[in-house]
Sequence to fold (507 residues):
Amino acid sequence: MNTTTTWITRKVSGLLPHAGAKGASKGNLNKIIQENVPPAPVDSAQAAIKTVATDKNSSSKPRSTRERLLGSLRHKEEALSPRVLRRTLEELRAIVDPQVSEVEGGRRAQGVARWYASATLEQRRDMWLLMSEQFVADPQVVKVAQAQFAAAVGTPDEAAAEVHYRRATVSPRRRLLQRFSAFPEGIRFLVDLRADMLPHLKADKRLQALDVEMEYMFSTWFDVGFLDLRPISWDSPASLIEKLIKYEAVHDIKSWADVKNRLDSDRRCYGFFHPRLPDEPLIFVEVAFMDDMANSITPLLDEAASAADLKKATTAIFYSISNTQTGLRGVSFGDSLIKRVVETLKLEFPKLKVFATLSPIPGFRAWLGKNAAAMLEKLDDKSRLQLGRALGFDTPGPEHFLSASDKALALDAKSPVRSLLLQCAAHYLGSEIKDGKPVDPVARFHLGNGARVERLNWAGDPSAKGLKQSCGLMVNYLYDLKRLDKHRAMLVQGKIAVSGDIDDLQF
Fold:
């Protein structure tokens, strides 16, 4: 059997006996191609009629892979012709052939992966669609198994019926992914494939089945029990340090001097690593040591600042946590990472008592732009009057408040605008929940780990990025190790754990 790579890249002249004639026009070549494409297999006369109609009259609605596999002509928006699509499907099915070994299945999967590496985005999309639409559990088998399980509930046959039902619902797609993971770079290939696919999920719902299957498989393969926690220091290989620079998502690393400062003797950095991706941190956290809770990122990133006295340090500040693999979206490492790092730090520094973050509030300014009017409605008459005087309007509108908020660094400590901004931020972090989760992505991460919203910090991040995201505000999330489970339980009930200071700021 030819590999997909060989088949797809074969020259047209090899498929078409007359295509090599000199002077063949584009129209003649198209005619030759059409004449040499074999008719598609059809299940019935009705399907055949439908196929012809579809080929002649391209609809605005994309054709399913089933329709394309039954066709003979490619629509202009389709990357692979029906013939190549059928051949690609054959190659994918060959990977999960029950008669081949794991080793042979992995070898065949590697061949498809090589084709994928050189394929265009549109061609890759066709492969995603095949994997999503053609490798599904048999609905009739599932229906029968479900009925048998329902009938067996409460009888001695219940356990056996449940096992049968569970097996019936497992899609061949899962087996396909397992075979792709069998060759040495298979895990890397699958993670990158999902990263390629994720931006297209919203526009093409047909890909969701494949995405959900991959997320499930990754959650198993990347369980924290299989991950190694490793320190990352200035003495680590340069290739690893370069990846810190590449993947840093919170505070951009501007230079080698910057990264050296973050990996200095008074700092720590830890990452989770997977055995199949040994040189690739999946997530990493940067830690600073202080004698109090940090209220600004500026001194932590100051390359000229003196090193902290580790003998006096009582507080560990997690000031940057970055996920590195887009393809692992939905796979949670954060909870375990924080716990493992805390345990490691307590062994090295027994005097540490406080574990907290200094975190951005990336969604705040965008949220405020949509909700400023609602926030103004919460003010009492006295506060609204004071705000109007500060803004120069008898009846201040949301546009006036937002305009002043964008100049947050110029506001003095007694400014009504500053007070309202802090109130809005406290409300955003302490009360705004959607689908049972905090709306801010960073809050969602830390609160989901059991942390508490502890303190808002004015001008905590005066950078252009900080001002754009949150009017310069930053927040401390406190990891109280004795109350993590309690705080998670509160969140399940739709309540966010906040300190007294944050609670006082809320409307």
Remarks:
- Residues 225-357 form a domain with the Aminopeptidase fold (CATH 3.40.630.180).
- The two ends are 70 Å apart (CA to CA).
